[in-house]
Amino acid sequence: MRVSRENFEDLVRNAVSALPEKFVSNMGNVSIVVSDHPTAKQMLENGLGARDVLYGLYDGVPLPERGSYVPPLPDVITIFHEPIESDCRTLEELAEQVRTTVFHEVAHYFGFSDGELDQMGLG
Prior knowledge:
This protein is of the alpha+beta class. 44% of the residues lie in helices and 13% in strands.
Protein backbone atom coordinates (compact mmCIF):
# COMPACT_ATOMS: atom_id res chain seq x y z
CA MET A 1 0.00 0.00 0.00
CA ARG A 2 1.56 3.26 -1.13
CA VAL A 3 0.09 6.77 -1.19
CA SER A 4 1.66 10.06 -2.19
CA ARG A 5 2.89 12.48 0.44
CA GLU A 6 0.02 14.80 -0.52
CA ASN A 7 -2.57 12.05 0.01
CA PHE A 8 -0.98 11.08 3.32
CA GLU A 9 -1.10 14.71 4.47
CA ASP A 10 -4.79 14.76 3.50
CA LEU A 11 -5.34 11.75 5.79
CA VAL A 12 -3.61 13.62 8.62
CA ARG A 13 -5.75 16.72 7.99
CA ASN A 14 -8.88 14.55 8.00
CA ALA A 15 -7.81 13.01 11.32
CA VAL A 16 -7.23 16.44 12.86
CA SER A 17 -10.64 17.55 11.57
CA ALA A 18 -12.20 14.55 13.32
CA LEU A 19 -10.86 15.61 16.73
CA PRO A 20 -13.55 16.74 19.17
CA GLU A 21 -13.95 20.53 19.17
CA LYS A 22 -13.10 20.75 22.89
CA PHE A 23 -9.60 19.51 22.02
CA VAL A 24 -9.09 21.52 18.83
CA SER A 25 -10.09 24.77 20.52
CA ASN A 26 -7.38 24.22 23.16
CA MET A 27 -4.52 23.40 20.79
CA GLY A 28 -3.08 26.90 20.53
CA ASN A 29 0.63 26.10 20.78
CA VAL A 30 1.07 22.90 18.77
CA SER A 31 2.02 22.21 15.16
CA ILE A 32 1.23 18.94 13.42
CA VAL A 33 3.71 17.95 10.72
CA VAL A 34 4.39 14.94 8.52
CA SER A 35 7.84 13.42 8.16
CA ASP A 36 8.89 10.43 6.10
CA HIS A 37 10.37 8.56 9.07
CA PRO A 38 11.81 9.21 12.53
CA THR A 39 15.44 10.17 12.83
CA ALA A 40 17.94 7.99 14.66
CA LYS A 41 18.05 10.69 17.37
CA GLN A 42 14.26 10.61 17.81
CA MET A 43 14.34 6.83 18.14
CA LEU A 44 17.21 6.92 20.65
CA GLU A 45 15.67 9.72 22.73
CA ASN A 46 12.50 7.62 23.06
CA GLY A 47 14.30 4.45 24.07
CA LEU A 48 13.68 2.73 20.74
CA GLY A 49 16.03 0.60 18.72
CA ALA A 50 16.50 0.21 14.98
CA ARG A 51 13.92 -2.62 14.80
CA ASP A 52 11.25 -0.68 16.68
CA VAL A 53 8.50 1.20 14.87
CA LEU A 54 7.39 4.74 15.63
CA TYR A 55 4.22 6.09 13.99
CA GLY A 56 4.08 9.46 15.69
CA LEU A 57 5.85 11.61 18.22
CA TYR A 58 4.81 14.45 20.51
CA ASP A 59 7.65 16.82 21.36
CA GLY A 60 6.85 19.50 23.89
CA VAL A 61 5.55 20.25 27.35
CA PRO A 62 2.13 18.66 28.01
CA LEU A 63 -0.51 21.21 28.99
CA PRO A 64 -0.96 19.96 32.58
CA GLU A 65 2.77 20.43 33.24
CA ARG A 66 2.92 24.05 32.06
CA GLY A 67 1.17 25.97 34.78
CA SER A 68 1.24 29.60 33.67
CA TYR A 69 4.35 29.02 31.55
CA VAL A 70 3.79 28.85 27.79
CA PRO A 71 6.83 27.77 25.76
CA PRO A 72 7.92 30.36 23.16
CA LEU A 73 8.07 27.78 20.36
CA PRO A 74 5.15 25.58 19.44
CA ASP A 75 5.03 22.00 20.56
CA VAL A 76 5.29 19.62 17.60
CA ILE A 77 3.40 16.46 16.76
CA THR A 78 5.09 14.53 13.98
CA ILE A 79 3.27 11.82 12.06
CA PHE A 80 5.63 9.44 10.26
CA HIS A 81 4.49 8.52 6.76
CA GLU A 82 6.67 5.50 5.92
CA PRO A 83 6.23 3.39 9.10
CA ILE A 84 2.45 3.79 9.03
CA GLU A 85 2.21 3.15 5.32
CA SER A 86 4.44 0.07 5.57
CA ASP A 87 2.18 -1.56 8.15
CA CYS A 88 -1.12 -0.99 6.31
CA ARG A 89 -2.56 -3.01 3.45
CA THR A 90 -5.60 -0.96 2.47
CA LEU A 91 -6.48 2.71 2.25
CA GLU A 92 -9.10 2.21 4.96
CA GLU A 93 -6.54 0.63 7.27
CA LEU A 94 -4.11 3.46 6.53
CA ALA A 95 -6.71 6.13 7.27
CA GLU A 96 -7.65 4.44 10.55
CA GLN A 97 -4.01 4.12 11.66
CA VAL A 98 -3.35 7.78 10.83
CA ARG A 99 -6.44 8.75 12.83
CA THR A 100 -5.38 6.62 15.80
CA THR A 101 -1.85 8.03 15.67
CA VAL A 102 -3.02 11.65 15.49
CA PHE A 103 -5.43 11.10 18.39
CA HIS A 104 -2.69 9.35 20.40
CA GLU A 105 -0.18 12.18 19.96
CA VAL A 106 -2.77 14.91 20.61
CA ALA A 107 -3.68 13.07 23.82
CA HIS A 108 -0.01 13.28 24.89
CA TYR A 109 -0.19 17.04 24.33
CA PHE A 110 -3.10 17.10 26.77
CA GLY A 111 -1.10 15.09 29.32
CA PHE A 112 -2.46 11.56 28.90
CA SER A 113 0.04 8.78 29.64
CA ASP A 114 0.62 5.71 27.47
CA GLY A 115 -1.22 3.60 30.08
CA GLU A 116 -4.27 5.87 29.92
CA LEU A 117 -4.16 5.79 26.11
CA ASP A 118 -4.07 1.98 26.17
CA GLN A 119 -7.21 2.01 28.31
CA MET A 120 -8.90 4.33 25.79
CA GLY A 121 -7.94 2.09 22.87
CA LEU A 122 -5.38 4.56 21.51
CA GLY A 123 -2.24 2.67 22.59
